[in-house]
Amino acid sequence: MSKAQNVSGLWGILVYFWSDIRPQFGLLVISAIALVADVGLRVLEPWPLKFVFDYVLLRSKKLNNIPVIASLEPITLLTFSAVAVLLITSLRALAAYWSTVGLATVGSRVMAKVRNHLYCHLQDLSLAYHTKARSGDLIIRVSSDASRLQEIMITAALPLVVSILTLFGMIGVMFWINPSLTLLSLFTLPLFWLVANRLSQRIKDSSLKQRQQEGAVAATAAESIAAIKLVKALSLQDAFARVFAQQNQRSLKENVKTQRLAAHLERTVDAVIALGTAIVLWYGSWLALRDALTPGDVLVFLTYLKNAFKPVQNFAKYTGRLAKAAASSERILDVLNQQPDVYDLPDAIPAPIFRGAVRFDRVHFAYQSGQVLLQDINLNIQPGQQVAIVGTSGGGKSTLVSLLLRLYDPTAGRVMIDGRDIREYTLASLRPQISVVLQDSLLFAASIRENISYGIAGVSDAEIEDATRLANAHDFIQALPQGYDTLVGERGATLSGGQRQRIAIARAAIRQAPILILDEPTTGLDQGNEKAVIDALQQLSENRTTFLITHDLYLATRADMILYLENGQVVEQGTHLELMQQNGRYAALYQVQASLRV
Questions:
Q1: Which of 17-26, 413-422, 497-506 has the highest mean pLDDT?
Q2: What's the CATH number for 3-210+252-336?
Q3: CA distances (Å), origin 315, targets 106, 330, 540
Q4: What residues does each domain of the chain span?
Q5: Residue 49: which region, alpha, beta or left (left: phi > 0; alpha: psi -120 to 50)?
Q6: Are 345 and 176 in contact, with CB atoms under 8 Å apart?
Q7: Label partner for 318 (CA 20 to 30 A): which of 182, 326, 377, 522?
Q8: Which CATH superfamily hosts domain 358-597?
């Protein structure tokens, strides 16, 4: 990719996030004015020195044609010049302060909005995307990569534009002083463009690899920390440490390469600027010796040349930053350009309060082409009916209820509630009417009260307590040090499995949803906790259409309908007695489990 293409890509990024930048336009304008004032005051800075050098020190006769200057005594002109230096420098410092503070404020505000937008977009992406992505890498994109966008949108892009304009302005003034000397000084500019064009793309490529390696480092750390109990139990600390060290070393290698290339670019530009300065110093002094210029003119010209090349130095510095930030932006845009597989249709409507009649009409589903998970599923479930879904592992049980939640959409057929395809409803009105209790119920690092009431506005303490009583959780919560205000660790690590599960049941109960999904809710519980959870589940499922996924056929016997899934197909369907009479797969499995219970 050429530099021109790179700049075009950055312009596309600014356009993409313009809706976030636009509200800050007023502050941006003020900051830009302060930047321009800073540049203008830099233009004035060398002139007091010129007057002192030519008139006070050398007493040049050429200034006698300026009446105001000629009428002043040397000491008066010296005083005015000293005051002018102080005033110009103070005003320039003030302008630089306001431009820096203004741009930093805008950058922080925009960055916060971009990060919120990115996070919300990640939340909206389908489950299929998240099953393939690594959580640690996504965290890096939301945090570190999003921060680098600030350099693209504010702290590099705008100063870069101002620097380019300043360069042309300075060159114009230099032409006014001496065209031939200006043309000679600009001889070095093509060298700068060649160097910047060659190195900026290499910096961007190296930065992209570095960000990818940082994502891999974060992903490994996140995975090992999330599974720290298993890592310790299996003595995997050294294995994970080796993988982490290898990835960290690769990230370090790319980081050093990126910094080396950026330093190479900036120091090469310094050498090019030194060459231009040497040429101007020699030729300008030669002109002064021939009385074509005054020594003060040479001094002003060299000062202007230095200031003119400062934007070139900034351009080199910001080119390196922009190249690195562009790599981060590509990773951000890669996420933002992802479209969710499951979304609201244009004519989707809010769902009414469901009665709970569920129908699967010739439903097929495949994660990828050729990998069929469900085949020709036909079910008709009445409101309040309890359905147990059993069968072999990998048979499609969890996938079946995931279609009801619209975590995925069927590749063929329809899932219907109360006689209407659920794709006709908005997701925001569909999912709150379906409560879920999972095998590994996730609790957040917050109080028990907050964990139960998350996502439900205006819940009273009495309602929370009623839900915990239904879940057989009230007594053990009251026994905790701070009761309902007790903070639980991340993922609920400070509670036992049974306690976590009963809080999850309370969380499902308080939603009072007409449809309930229970996915292996008693797996891994001891006998005492299992009984408490089963009793709570029985109360929770009353008068609700309930889907129970379980390997424990003892729980399945209480259901109104049992589905036996195998290889994505319903091979047996009926009540417990009907399936036992059929003497098929369900009956054989039940007999095996019954013998183990004895």
A1: 413-422
A2: 1.20.1560.10
A3: 21, 21, 66
A4: 3-210+252-336, 358-597
A5: alpha
A6: no
A7: 182
A8: P-loop containing nucleotide triphosphate hydrolases (3.40.50.300)
